[in-house]
Amino acid sequence: MRRSALALLWSGPVRRFRSIAVGWLLTLGLAGCGPSDSGRSPVAIERAVAIQQSLHAANADRPAFLLLQGALQMTPQATTSQHFDVSAAYEAPAKKGAPGGIVVEFKRKDPDVNINEEPAARLKFAPGSPLVAPPPPKSTGAIPDPANAHYIDLAKPLRFPVTVAEGAARGLSTVRTTVSYFYCSKRENWCRKGTAEFDLAVVLP
Predict the structure, then answer these.
(1) Residue 158's CB: how many other CB atoms inside 10 A?
(2) pTM for the complete prediction?
(3) Which of 44, 135, 163, 201 has the lowest tally of Cβ within 10 angstroms?
(4) What contacts 130, CB < 8 A, 6 or more positions away?
């Protein structure tokens, strides 16, 4: 309705009232608005403030483990690798009572090098850690053959489920974390073991 009225004043047989239309536009756009809210009506401003206040109130009642969710701050490995850039982060539980996780990302420096599915990657924490790593996966003990080995999809992060140690202190701590993995090069026909170490920030609510 408002747009139709403006269009009528701006064109058609009533063009002589064009200046009135401009004045009306400015009045509707600026009335009741501060410098940073130009073009917003008082009703829109009040509605935005109400939404912001409701979100703040909702977050105030949410458990800390939910507020820790969001974009992970990945920590690069402590030492450089010739073949991979490796980073990791602690991922808080999705809900109360669920396990947390260690998320590990690998970025290849050489497209020919890949990480093996078998033997599978392993996670280890330093003694006294507030987190408990999953038990090492079973392995056949066979030496990987680059010609027919199976590799993990490095486009997706690797996730290790972890639990909280009994009696672990709550709050922020730094956890020394080691990830071991095997990788191969088909071009050069070799396989070897790699390790990446991190000092990860962990917050337990």
Answers:
(1) 21
(2) 0.64
(3) 135
(4) 164, 165, 168, 169, 173, 175, 202, 204
